[in-house]
Amino acid sequence: MPENLTSSIGPEQQFKNYLDEGKFMIQRSKSLKKFFFHPRVAFPGTGERDLEWVEVSGNGVVYSTTCNRRLPEKGGDFNLSLITLDEGPKIMSRVEGIDPDKVEIGQKVKARISSLNGEPAVIFDVL
Predict the structure, then answer these.
(1) Handedness of CA 46, 59, 64, 93 (dihedral sign)
(2) Which of 36, 64, 94, 122 is the most exposed place for a label (fewest CB within 10 A)?
(3) 59-126 sits in which CATH class?
């Protein structure tokens, strides 16, 4: 994405725009060489503003998980997990392709970009 375009919109919208392009990008501080997630204008805790967008591997491990129960007419049960990305940050998302109550802590997962409620979203599948 051109630099002049990214500076005119906020980090959350930049993240969504990358997802629209089929890219899973997160931010990293150039000086600290550390990744973080959720998109922000400054590195959490330090205030560093030398941020860049980097496409990540999408590989991760389930850190915690829960099965949310819903009536079938409301879409049925779904999983909600906290995933530790190989790059370090944690991201909350769904793990699909497996029964929602069968997702386990420590399982290796891979991200893909899908649609959730009409918006692009990062969803994970078990490897």
Answers:
(1) positive
(2) 64
(3) mainly beta
